[in-house]
Each structure stands twice: as structure tokens, then as C-alpha cells.
Amino acid sequence: MRLDQFDCRGFRALVDQSFEPAPGLNVIRGHNAQGKTSVLEAVLFLATSKSHRTTAEGELVKHGEEGFHLGARAVGADREVRLQAHWWRGSKRFRVNGVFQTRVSDILGKLAVVLFSPDDIVLVKGTAAHRRKFLDMELSQINPVYLNGLQQYRQVLRQRNELLRGYSPDPDLLDVWDAQLAQAGAVLIRERDAFLGELGRLAGEVYGRITDGETLDLRYAPDTPPDVPLTEVLAQARASDLRRHMTTRGPHRDDIHMHVAGEAARSFASQGQQKTAALAVKLAEVSLVRARTGDWPVLMLDEALSELDAKRSRMLFGAIDDAVQCLVTTTNLGGLSHLVGPDATLFRIERGVLEKE
To answer: pLDDT tens-digit profile of 257-275?
Structure first.
């Protein structure tokens, strides 16, 4: 998938404008607080309905405005798609090829994107919740079965927790919720296991290339034993759930274990190793999206080269397929001078104005 045109009005501090990235490598440079990250954030919001920087969507609106509008034209291997996102006074609506979408989930996968930002180091050093969020977002973009299962699981989990918070919950009704939670949970466990099996293999290969042979091991760490049905796990945990008024076991407590050079990355890897591991996971995701959908996603790298030496930077870009459209932000083009060839397209951003150089 390639982003041909992107329109933006009223978003953050960006000036209303149209952005036309080229195929291949696009470099957006500018000083801090000029809007580089906001450009990538706007593309991410249009593709996923989410910001990676805030859950308070009102913060995305330019000061003095009451809403924002985003639009894009993207071209894939065998299709063209036009997307629009409109946010106005707390409500948001999306169109795909001019047709209003009744559910936000209907837009996922129409424009596949992979974003790496400095905050993505939480994939390695953050909590299990950060890694589950990553799993849910990435799988939801490429796997409708997973997305449906996730929506069902969250709904049943919410209803089960509401029952547990009540006075003297009905055991028969808990049995009903347990059965439904187990059914939806089985989908999440199956799809997460398959996804991480592929992702782990690819991420290990990418990490080895970037680090000249160092190892990265990525493994699914489900909360429930693989040989025990979730209904049985829930039954065993029921007494604890009743005391704590919440569901204490299930896929909503899953994790991913990462090891660098045989050691737990979260505890023993250096800052540089942790960042490189997170980058390797994101680049592996690019290949996995291609394998699952037949289209390359748009890769967005926000200050990805900071803290990486010249050798690792070259290895990083060498791991990106030439067919991938890539949007890279940087404060200093000098750090990219050994990577940017004649085919790269350069943009400068200042005070929210993005211009081609």
C-alpha cells in the first residue's frame, strides 16, 4: 500500500495543507516542536482511529478550532482507496470511498500502517498491558477474525466484571459468562500464538541483521496453560474473582517475553539493545503484514535513528525492502546523510508548514 496524497485540516498545530509523499523513502526534517510527529500521528489516526500519543482526542484539535478533518488517497497492489476522518465536538466519523462507516472497526486494514516512535521502547521495558495493546492493534489491522473475537471478549469481560462487582453474583449467570468468555478467549489465544510465532521468527532475523549476529527471542506468554480449557481456569479462579470483584485470569492478562542474547530484555538489555529490539519487531511486522495481506504497509519511523550508531543505522535501512513506502522524521539530516540517496524525497517542516525541498 502506498500513500499518494494526505490532506489535513485543523489537526494539532499543523497548517491546513496537502501532503504528497513519494514511493520509497520520504524524509521529514525540522527542529523539535515543529510538527514532524504530528504528521505521522495524523496518518495513524486516519488508518486506525487512534493516536499513539493520547487517548483524549480533543487534544488533537488545533487551538481555536472545534474539530479536524483528515483525508487520504492510497494505492495498493490491486486497488485504490480513499479515506476520510472527521472529528467534531467529541464525535468522529469515517468514510471509505465516500461511504460512511457505521463502525470504526470497518476502517481497520483499509490503509495498513506500521509506526515506530521513541515511546515504542515500552514494547520491551514497559508493562504487559503495553505489549497486549500492541498485539491488539496490529492483529486487528490484518485479521478480521481476531478483531471480532477481541470485540466479543471485551464485551463479555465487561459484563462478567459488572456481575462480580454486584451483591451475591448468581453462579448460574457466571457460568454463562464463563462459557462465552472462554469461546472468545480461545480465538485470541489461537491467533496471538500464530501471530507471535511468525513475528518472533522474523524479528529475530531482522535483529540479527541490524546487530551483526546478536540474538532476539520473542515468545507468547499466555496467562492460561495451553493444555487447560479456559472454562476450567475460570472455575478454579472463581473464589478469587468473587473476593476481588474482577476477572483475574484470561487473555486480558497475557504477555510477550523478549530475550536479547539469552537474557531477559526488560531487565538486562541496554537502552540501545531495547530500542533496536523494538525496531526489529516493527520491521518484522512490515514483512508479516505483506505476507498476510499481499500489500506492504506504510512504514513510519519517528526519530528512529537517535541513539543508533552509523553502522546500526545502515543495517536498519538495509532491512527495509525497497518496495516499502517509508516516512522518516529527523531533526538533523546529517544523521541520515550516509543513508539518503538520490531517490529519497526530502521535506522540511517549520511551524506546522510541510514543504518539499
So the answer is: 999 999 999 999 999 899 9
What distance in Å separates the CA atoms of residue 67 and residue 280, rounded to the nearest whole number? 36
Mean pLDDT of all residues belonging to the chain: 93
Q: 190 φ, ψ to 5°?
A: -60, -50
For residues 232-259, one letter each, b for 16 or more C-beta atoms within 10 angstroms of the residue's C-beta and e for the rest, the string is: ebbeebbeebeeeeebbbbbbebbbbbb
Instruction: Give the residue among 305, 357, 310 at the shortest CA–CA distance from 118.
Output: 305
Q: How far apart are CA 23 and CA 3, in angstroms?
A: 8
173-204 residue pLDDT tens: 999 999 999 999 999 999 999 999 999 999 99
CA-wise closest residue to 79 among 305, 353, 295, 348? 295
Stretch 104-132: mean pLDDT: 93
Asked if residue 336 has pLDDT above 90, the reply is: no
Q: What is the pTM of this model?
A: 0.92
R_g (Cα) of the chain, nearest Å: 22
Beta-strand ranges (E) seen in 65-136 are 67-75, 80-88, 91-96, 99-100, 113-116
Domains of the chain: 1-112+297-357 (3.40.50.300), 120-294 (1.20.1050.90)
Question: Amino acid letter at 5?
Answer: Q
In whole angstroms, what is the distance from residue 125 CA to residue 80 CA?
38
